[in-house]
Amino acid sequence: MNNLWTLYIFPMIFRLSQAKELRLREVKMSSKQSLAKLSLMIRLLSKVHLFLITGTSATKRELYYQFLINNQGQLDQCVLGVSSILNAAPWELGILSTAKGIVAGDLTIVISRIPENLL
Q1: Tell me, what's the pLDDT at 5?
Q2: Please, what is the average pLDDT of the chain?
Q3: Which is the catalytic residue, given 56, 65, 66, 91?
Q4: Given the DSSP bridges, would you call strands 58-59 and 13-18 parallel, antiparallel or unpaired?
Q5: Cα dist from 14 to 2, 9, 10, 88, whole Å
Q6: Model-wide pTM > 0.70
Q7: What span, in angstroms and rounded, lies between the C-alpha atoms of 80 and 75?
Q8: Going from the N-terminus, what domains does the chain have, and what CATH number goes with each?
Q9: What's the Cα-to-Cα distance from 63 to each of 6, 70, 93, 119, rounded to whole Å?
Q10: 43-79, pLDDT tens digit by residue?
Q11: 76: left (phi over 0), alpha (psi -120 to 50) or beta
Q12: Which helix (H) or strand (E) holds 5?
């Protein structure tokens, strides 16, 4: 994976460390793919700004559905890029990772009719 950050795991500590060689990324205004990546990064920076101001967060999957992009891999790369630019871990920016099937937040179950054998 070509990114500027690698994850080092120490006992009870997670830390992002900058790679030794920094790579310059070029945006070609004539390339639709390059412009799409830039657009996604700007939209993600806007979301991060909102998260930091309001103290809220979202999962990568939520952002994937909000942005309606082709695949989640594009978003994952963009999250790494934004984290690199801001010198912060994604969770510090309000972007969380979660396993599939995890429920977060308040959950209310409404049963309209309770069978007699359960009373």
Answers
A1: 46
A2: 76
A3: 65
A4: unpaired
A5: 20, 5, 6, 12
A6: no
A7: 9
A8: 31-118 (1.10.10.10)
A9: 22, 12, 13, 42
A10: 999 999 999 999 999 989 889 888 888 888 888 888 8
A11: alpha
A12: strand 5-10
82 close to 45: Cβ distance less than 8 angstroms: yes
Tens digit of each residue's pLDDT (9 = 90 or more) over 31-43: 788 888 888 889 9
Q: CA 59 → CA 21, 70, 80, distances in Å?
A: 30, 17, 14
- Residue 71 backbone dihedrals phi, psi, to 5 degrees: -150, 160
The answer to whether 64 is a known catalytic residue is no
- Helix, strand, coil percent content, the chain, rounded in steps of 5: 45, 15, 40
Q: Which of 11-15, 25-29, 84-88, 99-103 has the lowest mean pLDDT?
A: 11-15
